[in-house]
Write a structure and sequence with these properties.
alpha+beta; eight-stranded mixed β-sheet; globular; seven-stranded antiparallel β-sheet
């Protein structure tokens, strides 16, 4: 059993009954040793058996009882067990088995073992739960056995205990040269079983060892020192130590696990304590040695272990001789006096050091053999194991390695414990051999030092590691382990042209070690790589991409976001400056990592933004006397505008065109001449000889040298520059692709042009060698024309890509570059302000934004009033009013007033990340492009050989269909030329570019258009998935409703002559003005609005009783009412004046009617006693609630409202109905979604009455009420299991798990960080019509992608057969240049087709409302099925008979007629919607006064 202790924070406990409930419920669970709940500290301390329970299961158990439970510390602390020995009398009434079972029944007893003679029982127990006295009282007749030594748990039962006595041994050790030698010997020997203390002296060249001879022999100790590489001999024969048994037990108890203890002789360990100090400021091993040697010299210190990695010191000391404070000062005084010493928990932490219970040390002494070599144990963390088969395969492979004695792999703990011989193998070899098997292996951080010991029995070791069933592993633990080793980086990639490039990069990088996954976005020019930082670094990843022939740079600011700082540090001269900066920063609280490079003057710092900010870090460096500045980041999003590529391809096009025009001229001239010759041959019956003579007499056919005509020479001269300069880029890319055994678009182009050029060149050389009379026909015209069309296509493509990336680039460069940070004094007085780079803004800063300025970060307004233009982000043209308390979005523009904002967090780079995630369609296209090029090359080769064979078999076909054929050329040459032309055309026309561009261009434009319309879509997948959605699930609060309660209606229960209505409103508004309860806020807001006044009266003696109501006294409302009356009279005068002017133009207003604005001096202030609350509150205060009032309250409650009663001076005078109101657009949104063929569901944690009421108002018929946040996930999963795609719409905080689970998660509102993380789409505006727009946009985008695929495939499916000559019989023949023109056209047409999406207009509410007019109506309760919780069975609705329905409809009609004649005493806020006047809610009574 392994006992551990965990502290669970518990919220929601109100009394001792809650405490008892938790203690009883948790205490009954299997494996719980003790549970203590504190109401004051709001926590539960649980001691449990870690093999039977985990912190997560305990947290869940408390959570299931209805309390909020969180783990205060995710790492449970091991609990230190104590051991006592019980002497069992020979005449005991109980057998040894009965004694064991009796003891084990008690909580707190961990283990009971019996000696082989059954005279002694060893009881291991937890002292915080039970003590030794209680244990002795449990078994009658037993008493404490003082003669038996302490036995650590895990010792073999039948080991015969001999009388414990210790022996001192002095060894002469030769061969030690430094302190490292002494610590090696102390470390290795100190870990052996039976060694109690060892001290090695370098000066005296000797070792003093205190050991137990019944566990280890002097000869063996000597042998182990020699095994470590030193010469050892006995100085004096061993002499026994005079220590009592109790002292010995204490000595053994104080040993710390795996620590290299430096022990002192003859110290009475009875009085020692263990303390842990945190030491900041250590840099290297020499600091550790310094502290160890200085402190161990103190007479009161028995041992000290200093760890550089953990920044800690564990000290065993005698509290009678020295205090903790003196120890701390002693460490701080160690040279160079720069150490900072503190206690980790400000207390002596003894429980951290359990007694040595390692199975590796507790084995039968008989197993020892002095001849055995030293062995070591290493623990290796292993990631990636999924089942027991992985465990067996690792154990099988590693156990075969030389030097491995035993291995045990635990699937649950994700680690392997290996015992090995250090002379034959080392931990690094073992780790790499596990990695070679495909797992991630790293050394455990808790490996404080390897255990060294003689070889134990593997059997004993394995017993202690019983594999726990995998089901018990808390999933959170596994997830945490997973994320710990995988990092994410972004690489900017340039030079990608099509999907084949994407496939190439992804395929090659996936093969590399340490890379888990890679996603490349063609349009954003970016790759997202998840990698193991222990194996590979981002710079190496970028290098791998560069080797593939693309430009690659690591994007720095996409790492962990804030928390990483790159600085340029000036003024460093030597390594000591570097050390100074690093050591000072590492001492600074909140700095996690720091690395300074002297050569580049750069510092790389990781920090925790919750504790420290970038300006603080810079200030620390400045205080040291160095100047520092930020490494400037490129915020222009210039990589998205494709300017460089546009320039490159434009240049390439112009160069090719300059040389191509003359070539085309020559070609056209030759074609015309050939045509005339063939006409002459046909009409004038010229002989072949005459034709040849005429042909050769043409200027261009004139031979400069035998076999070299002017035409061919000019073509060759014009072709070479194009082939070299125009094709330079293609050749480089093709070479890099072929080097990595991949083929892309460039390979096709290079093949086509090179074959044409080389074939022509060779033919020409052959003709010159043969001194041929007839000039050969060459293809020198093909490369220039090919390059012209391809570079034109690429140029246009990049221009279009630049256009589609505009929205993205605009959103990225929205962020302001600088911010004005201000310091405020008391009463918000401005003390100072400074301009800083936006990267240096910290959480909690106060930023000033002047009119016309951009908001540099997301924040909340704390002072000022202004209009803000958010159109760039939300698409909303109208400026939004911002005052104190409102949130502002980074990138929006402040218009007229100056604002002070407090910083919330940095802007989310959402849209750019969006484009990196791929649509599934696109992944298919990328894969297709990868196979495309090789298959086209194959088709081309087949075409070549097919036509050569056909030509030689039946020459007439070639002769008939080959344009420009003349008899002066030999038949073989005609066939070869024709075959080459066909195969080159096949290469030219085939283009995977258009396939690859089909999806990303549309997704890019779609996400851009979405962003302009206030819908941020995280990439291709949600954009494509949204059109497949069949069910839309809405959260209620904050999504369908506003999320803030409003007063729906006020019923006055007294006549206005007793208490005027405005007076009552003034009293109620004033009374609730001190309340923070949402209902109180709603009442105050309503009263202020009705009275048209921001100021109210004075409220005193304010008392609030939670769950009941408030009581207070109200004064000073007369002035408010006087102003109110005055305004009414002024209005009356204005109205009278208007009437009089209309009646009689001559009559003038009497001046006597104007009222003096001064308050009457004789007005006295009256005090009112006010009660506002529920029925119970009124009853408690002696007020009777009449039946009709009670009925009215019940009616409101049935409609999902909260009814509140108000009493003034002991008289019940008002009933206020308050409810969370439905958003005005909700009903239209639901109706539109239904008309699009989607099922709409409402899911809420609220009660079923309210849920039913809200559902009836918006027209939803399926409701899940009273659903917990955790059950929302299960509900979404349930809908998905039925085979339906689910979209979840929520306001993002309690819905985030469900948003993440849904196929498409849509977060509403300005979007909390949680929502943005979890959702796939974020609707920046709080408008439910955007849900409709997002699904509509998705449908339009997918439609566009399909059209693009049609475009792309038509070119390839039709073009390739035509080029191959399949359609020759009907006269369809393509020249190579026509092929390349078609290829360019296919890419351009796909991009233009995508750009048409830019014209997308989201459905306007007016049009949809007009279309839905008369069809939207409120649902009656019989139409709504309400399901409670997660189960499917609904509570059903009241089944209405036909008669009931007729009565309801007739009542509705009468109500609609009466609706104008509502009582004067009743103020109705919630007027029915214009479409639903005839069909109000079921049972809605006329709201008249009682």
């Amino acid at each position: 059993m392994e006992a551990k202790s965990i502290v669970v924070s518990v919220e929601g406990m109100t009394c001792n009954s809650c405490v008892q409930t938790i203690e009883q419920h948790v205490g009954k669970m299997n494996g719980i040793l003790n549970v203590k709940v504190s109401l004051e500290d709001k926590n539960a301390v649980v001691i449990y058996d870690s093999k039977l329970q985990t912190p997560a299961t305990l947290q869940e158990a408390i959570y299931d009882m209805g309390f909020d439970a969180t783990l205060a510390d995710s790492n449970p602390q091991p609990v230190l067990p104590d051991t006592i020995f019980l002497a069992i009398p020979t005449q005991s009434a109980l057998t040894s088995k009965q004694i064991c079972s009796t003891l084990l029944k008690n909580k707190g007893i961990v283990d009971v073992k019996m000696s082989s003679d059954h005279k002694t029982a060893v009881v291991t127990f937890i002292s915080s739960i039970i003590n030794g006295k209680q244990i002795i009282q449990m078994i009658p007749g037993v008493n404490l056995n003082t003669s038996a030594p302490e036995v650590t748990p895990g010792t073999c039962e039948d080991s015969s205990w001999s009388q414990a006595s210790s022996v001192v041994l002095r060894l002469k050790v030769e061969g030690m040269t430094c302190h490292s030698c002494t610590s090696t010997i102390e470390g290795k020997i100190g870990k052996l079983q039976g060694i109690q203390r060892i001290k090695v002296s370098l000066d005296n060249q000797e070792a003093v060892v205190v050991y137990q001879p019944h566990l280890i022999t002097a000869e063996e100790i000597k042998h182990q020192v020699e095994a470590a590489g030193f010469t050892a001999s006995f100085k004096k024969q061993p002499r026994p130590l005079k220590l009592s048994v109790v002292d010995l037990e204490r000595l053994r108890n104080t040993q710390t696990k795996g620590s290299e203890t430096v022990r002192k002789e003859n110290l009475n360990a009875n009085d020692t304590k263990t303390v842990v100090f945190r030491i900041d400021g250590m840099h290297c091993g020499s600091c550790v040695l310094n502290i160890q040697s200085t402190i161990s010299a103190l007479p009161s210190v028995s041992s000290i272990v200093v760890s550089l990695e953990k920044k800690s010191a564990i000290i065993n000391y005698n509290p009678n001789l020295i205090s903790m404070d003196v120890l701390r000062k002693a460490i701080e005084a160690v040279s160079p006096e720069t150490f900072k010493v503190s206690l980790p928990d400000e207390c002596e932490n003894v429980a951290l050091f359990p007694t040595l219970a390692s199975p590796l040390k507790s084995f039968h002494p008989a197993l020892k053999d002095a001849s055995q070599p030293l062995t070591q144990v290493v623990v290796i963390n292993i990631e990636g194991m999924t089942c027991n088969s992985c465990v067996q395969s690792i154990e099988g492979v590693v156990s075969q390695k030389a030097g491995v004695k035993s291995i045990h792999v635990s699937l649950v703990n994700g680690n392997g414990t290996i015992e090995y011989d250090p002379l034959q193998t080392c931990p690094e070899d073992l780790r790499s051999s596990i990695e070679d098997m495909g797992f991630d292996a790293s050394f455990s951080v808790t490996n404080e030092g390897m255990f060294n010991q003689a070889q134990p029995s593997p059997k004993v070791q394995l017993e202690s590691h019983k594999t726990e069933p995998p089901s018990k592993v808390p999933p959170t633990h596994l997830a945490r382990q997973e994320t710990k080793t995988i990092s994410k980086c972004y690489v900017q990639v340039t030079g990608m042209t099509c999907a084949s490039c994407v496939a190439n990069i992804e395929r090659n990088l996936r093969r590399e070690d340490g890379i888990h996954s890679i996603l490349v976005a063609l349009m954003a020019g970016k790759a997202e790589v998840r990698y193991n930082p222990a194996v590979i670094h981002p710079s190496a990843i970028a290098e791998l991409i560069r080797e593939l022939g693309f430009g690659a740079t690591v994007v720095e600011d996409c790492g962990e976001g804030d928390g990483i700082l790159e600085l340029v540090v000036r003024g460093m001269t030597c390594a000591s400056c570097v050390h100074k900066i690093e050591s000072t920063l590492m001492k600074t609280n909140g700095v996690l990592y720091c690395s300074v490079a002297l050569a580049t003057n750069k510092a790389h710092i990781k920090y925790d933004p919750e504790i420290i900010g970038p300006r603080d870090v810079i200030q620390v460096i400045k205080d040291l006397g160095f100047t520092t500045s930020l490494v400037k980041k490129d915020r222009s999003a210039s990589h998205l505008d494709h300017k460089q590529e546009i320039r490159q391809w434009k240049r390439s096009f112009v160069v090719s065109l300059v040389f191509c025009i003359p070539v085309m001229g020559l070609m056209i001239y030759m074609m015309v001449m050939d045509n005339q010759l063939s006409d002459a041959h046909a009409h004038h019956n010229m002989s072949s000889e005459e034709m040849e003579a005429l042909h050769s007499s043409m200027v261009l056919e004139y031979q400069l040298l035998p076999g070299l005509s002017v035409m061919n020479f000019l073509s060759f001269l014009l072709c070479v520059p194009v082939q070299v300069f125009g094709g330079w880029h293609f050749y480089i890319q093709a070479y890099k692709a072929l080097k990595h055994k991949t083929a892309n678009m460039d390979v096709l182009i290079v093949l086509a042009t090179s074959i044409a050029f080389i074939y022509s060149f060779v033919i020409l050389l052959v003709a010159m060698a043969e001194k041929a009379k007839v000039n050969p026909v060459t293809f020198f015209d093909t490369p220039p024309m090919l390059f012209v069309f391809i570079s034109l296509g690429r140029w246009l493509e990049h221009v279009a890509k630049g256009k589609t990336s505009e929205a993205l680039a605009r959103l990225i460069s929205l962020q302001a570059a600088e911010a004005t940070i201000v310091t405020l004094g008391p009463d918000n007085v401005l003390l100072s302000e400074e301009q800083v780079d936006v990267e240096l803004v910290q959480r909690g800063d106060i930023v000033k934004v002047i009119p016309g300025g951009k908001f540099p970060v997301d924040g909340r307004v704390i002072e000022g009033h202004s209009m803000v233009d958010e159109s760039l982000i939300t698409g909303e043209a109208m400026p939004v009013t911002k005052k104190a308390g409102n949130t502002v979005i980074a990138g929006s523009i402040n218009q007229n007033g100056s604002l002070l904002i407090s910083v919330l967090s940095q802007i989310v780079k959402l849209v750019e990340e969006a484009q990196t995630s791929k649509a599934p369609i696109q992944q298919f296209a990328d894969k297709l492009s990868g196979y495309f090029v090789p298959s086209i090359v194959a088709v081309s080769v087949v075409t070549l050989f097919a036509w050569i064979i056909i030509g030689f078999v039946d020459f007439e076909i070639v002769e008939k269909y080959f344009l420009g054929y003349n008899k002066s050329i030999s038949a073989a040459e005609v066939i070869i030329r024709f075959a080459f032309q066909a195969s080159i055309t096949v290469l030219c026309i085939a283009c995977p570019c258009s396939l690859g561009l089909a999806t990303p261009t549309a997704v890019m434009v779609g996400t851009g258009v979405g962003a302009q319309n206030g819908i941020l879509i995280k990439g291709g997948e949600p954009l494509e998935m949204a059109h497949k959605v069949k069910v839309v699930v809405f959260d209620k609060t904050g999504t369908i409703t506003h999320g803030t309660p409003e007063v729906m209606q006020v019923k006055f229960l007294v006549e206005s002559n007793q208490l005027p209505h405005d007076k009552m409103l003034a009293i109620l508004g004033t009374a609730e003005s001190n309340s923070e309860h949402p209902l109180g806020v709603a009442i105050t807001k309503y009263c202020k609005k009705e009275l048209d006044s921001e100021a109210l009266g004075t409220c005193t003696d304010f008392q609030v009783v939670p769950g009941c109501g408030i009581s207070c006294k109200v004064t000073n409302i007369e002035a408010l009412l006087y102003r109110q009356d005055k305004m009414v009279e002024e209005n009356n005068i204005k109205n009278m004046t208007l009437v009089k002017i209309e009646e009689n133009m001559d009559e003038l207003v009497q001046p006597a009617l104007i009222i003096d604005a001064e308050l009457p001096t004789n007005m006295t202030s009256q005090t009112y006693c006010v009660l506002i609350g529920n029925r119970e509150w009124m009853n408690r205060n002696g007020l009777v609630v009449k039946n009709e009032v009670d009925k009215a309250m019940m009616e409101h409650e049935r409609r999902g409202r909260t009814a509140v009663l108000a009493a003034v001076d002991g008289v019940l005078c008002g009933l206020i109905a308050i409810a969370d109101t439905v958003k005005p657009e909700a009903e239209l949104a639901v109706y539109t979604l239904k008309s699009m063929g989607l099922e709409v569901v409402l899911m809420t944690g609220d009660n079923s009455k309210t849920a039913r009421s809200i559902a009836s108002q918006v027209g939803i018929t399926k409701v899940f009420a009273e659903v917990l946040p955790s059950h929302k996930v299960a509900k979404v999963k349930q809908l998905q299991d039925e085979g339906r795609r689910v979209a979840m719409v929520g306001d993002g905080i309690n819905d985030s798990p469900a948003l993440a689970m849904a196929n498409v998660g849509i977060a509403i509102g300005t979007g909390t960080d949680v929502a943005i993380e979890a959702a796939d789409m974020v609707l920046i505006r709080d408008d439910l019509m955007d849900v409709v727009a997002s699904i509509d946009l998705s449908r339009k985008t997918v439609k566009r992608i399909r059209i693009n695929f049609v475009f792309a495939l038509i070119y390839n499916l039709i073009g390739v057969p035509i080029a191959a000559g399949v359609f020759l019989p009907i006269g369809l023949v393509l020249q190579p240049w026509m092929g390349s023109a078609a290829m360019a056209a296919s890419s351009v047409s796909v991009v233009l087709s995508s750009l048409l999406l830019k014209m997308y207009q989201k459905p306007s509410s007016e049009k949809l409302e007009f279309r839905a007019r008369g069809q939207m109506r409120h649902k009656s309760p019989s139409e709504i099925s309400v399901h409670i919780g997660i189960d499917e069975t609904g509570t059903g609705s009241p089944k209405l008979s036909l008669m009931d329905r007729i009565i309801n409809y007739s009542r509705a009609s009468i109500n609609s007629l009466l609706s104008d004649k509502r009582s004067v005493n009743s103020i109705v806020l919630h007027e029915p919607d214009k479409h639903s006047l005839l069909v109000p809610d079921f049972g809605e009574d006329d709201d008249t006064a009682l």
